[in-house]
């Protein structure tokens, strides 16, 4: 690996490019308000997000964030440890970049009759900036600020279809629950600060010993932080906003929130719990957070799956499925043990990456269906493959991959989660229950995923349709997502190495 | 790199066909499918492997490269061919080509998607027979399900939705059981294995087997895994009582899909049984020989009796597959050269014969739009050539000498009768032989009623002779059936070469 010579601040290039693109769009909008020159606006957004993605990929390949001992460039530590660019930060910046690029390209067609073009894309890019910064945040302060930077534009984006009651209602619900959970999160931060006297994650870890007399306070603080993460990742017990918000939001925004925002929520959870609250120290204080995550993982995946199985509305089904997948990714934290657990944490990161392709693709298919105006329920989708075979092949790929069936990417990441949980089971037998829940839920999930495949491929349409158009942007985004979901299977070696390496680097 | 070329041609061909215009898709897919036929025949001609792939044999066309390193285990792209897999690969490529040609008449909607899926199945079927890494193998194994589900679900008969989902659920649940138990076994083998390569796992199994895992003792664990994997594969084969998905799937599937289902997909189950259960667990085989042989005999007799009770020609052929697969299990459990070798030979032979039967029934259905025995009679007057081929195929099924069915059944009975796996083996073999009588009974009975006698069928159109492209594939199959019947050593030599190392594993030698 070549060692890059570069100033420290450039390590933050991926989020900075996103922010810059948002500012360019704002400038364009102030010069030329109410512009509906969609090619320029969507093009700038797509180029910006792709540039951010490309830089992040280049960094990870060039060894930025890889420890010097392994021939890399070393971890970039900025503003006295407030922000940190390591392999895990870059890995999640890639996920955010991928999803943002896909969503920007797909929105080109989706927003064809929309009045607020530049506003929409700049809000998407601002939210992406927040998520990308969350990946690098290494202090409770920067975490909170970047979290809010990601959340506030999201509220506006969910409600951006101003004349659509569903969209506005979803935006309000999302905002109210978001505000509540932010309050809980901040309160948690203040309790942790009160117990340890620090905000920076490494400093918190160093001062945990001082908290021995206040471990009750610290415990409640940790619990409240978990509540904040649960909201951001759409996990139980703060998952109930997800179906409402996704259903009302424009479908590309639902794709954006359920993939990128969820991944960003997980990266801060991974970092906070591995860096600030090492399990061995916390167990001596009597605060064993891995038990909380074991329960949350099992409950979240089960609730998500059973709720998804009963839906008739495709978007709601996907929303609950995204709750279920949050449960799978939570295994990454549940499986951490005193002995380590880089395999299981890396597996959760891989799952979030694969999920970034397959889930975004699935929601973008819904966006395509909304673009066509075919309706929202499974029955409305019946027989779509006759008019749009290529998009329906992509949908089948997404569904079988989400269900974890080979030969798609979702099979690998679920299998790695399974082995990771089994490996950890030797240290903590409860993980056997997690592994079993993962297998059973995956098997059950095939029921509702295959229902959608059956609808588009096997059922006959209820009403005869005219032939459907093929919007270039949406099609391109869906096909790229499907191709990546398949290609990631043969190319999983480097992904697995990067994820497990990144996980190994942050586990103390 | 020839194996990679074989799979790549089918995969790329599937993509090309999928986006080709419907008008030319059938012809295009046929031309593309001739390339794998040519490659596999060339492989057959220059095959230089020896021994068994899992037991230190010399592999032909071997290639291996690292794929993913996961914790302590490496997952590799590892493919190779031995005397057991080569006949099955050739069978697959030929049968796919012929199935494509035989679908030109019946498939009249969404052709490009249909032929694309058929080629996609071909790629994965070849993969199942050549993969020597468990993960690679499992990916191919599972990837067969999705296109077959769609083939049945979109182009199938009136109850296609039910049949498709039943097929999918049965085989997928079985795969999960098998997958989970095998992974548990690999973990339990501990430091003995460092990859998922099947030869390495086999070696570790034969050198002591697993340690205790998750509180289950070594011996119990091995037996549990053996039973779980047997059940997992038994659904795919299928044996009684896991056979109920088969008649539904076969009957509702369009003719070419039935040909592939009976011809190749069922062989995946028996092939996997041979590779996993009967190669890696010789001790457990001798432990469970009586129940397995009993299952085999029940499948033979009960499957044949079920066929006897049907009035739908396609159902008759479908149930007779259950019966034929019972013979394969009987041959495997005998654990002799002729038993296992005959079972492998029967896989190929049954693939050809059942493919022929399904095609012939399909051709008659194309003309008459009925398959009910009670609806028609005297078809021989109207479609002499198709009926002639159907009769020839039926005699192959019954085991007429000089046809491959006779050789296969003779090998199996010879091997099973002399087997020392259990003192009851001659009894089981004797019982299974009655299956032949019933087979002859139902096939002759059905044909006598439908094909001969005065012509009687209510149609408002003239029944014409079948076109050449419907008849030609059947003649190719008939030629192969007779060739293997006259000269079984064409493939039997390479089969026994690969089977002998397995037979040597048994404590009760394999002299028969």
From TrEMBL, chain A:
**Gene Ontology molecular function: any one:** NADH dehydrogenase (ubiquinone) activity
Asked if Zinc is a keyword of the record, the answer is no
Its Gene Ontology cellular component terms are: membrane
Residues spanning the membrane: 12-28, 40-68, 88-108, 120-137, 143-162, 174-196, 216-241, 253-277, 289-310, 317-338, 344-369, 390-409, 429-449, 473-492
Q: Please give the superkingdom of this protein's source.
A: Archaea
One matching Pfam family: Proton_antipo_M
Start and end of every NADH:quinone oxidoreductase/Mrp antiporter transmembrane domain? Answer: 137-436
Identify this protein by name. Answer: NADH-quinone oxidoreductase subunit N
List the source organism. Answer: Natronoglomus mannanivorans
From TrEMBL, chain B:
Q: What is this protein called?
A: NuoM family protein
Q: Which family does it belong to?
A: Belongs to the complex I subunit 4 family.
**Keyword Transmembrane in record:** yes
NCBIfam families in UniProt = NDH_I_M (TIGR01972)
Example of a GO biological process term? ATP synthesis coupled electron transport
Alphabetically, the GO molecular function entries are: NADH dehydrogenase (ubiquinone) activity; NADH dehydrogenase activity; ubiquinone binding
Under the cellular component aspect of Gene Ontology, which terms does the record hold?
A: membrane
* Record organism: Natronoglomus mannanivorans
Pfam families, per the entry: Proton_antipo_M
Membrane-topology annotation of the record: Multi-pass membrane protein
| PANTHER family on file | NADH-UBIQUINONE OXIDOREDUCTASE CHAIN 4 (PTHR43507:SF1)
Query: What are the TM regions of this chain, as residue ranges?
Result: 6-21, 28-47, 75-102, 114-132, 138-155, 167-189, 213-235, 256-276, 288-309, 316-335, 347-365, 385-412, 424-445, 466-487
User: Is Zinc-finger one of the keywords UniProt gives this record?
Assistant: no
InterPro entries in alphabetical order:
NADH_Q_OxRdtase_chainM/4, NADH_UbQ_OxRdtase, ND/Mrp_TM
Domain of life according to the entry:
Archaea
UniProt KW keywords: Membrane, Transmembrane, Transmembrane helix
Q: Which compartments does it reside in?
A: Membrane
Ranges where the NADH:quinone oxidoreductase/Mrp antiporter transmembrane domain occurs: 131-431
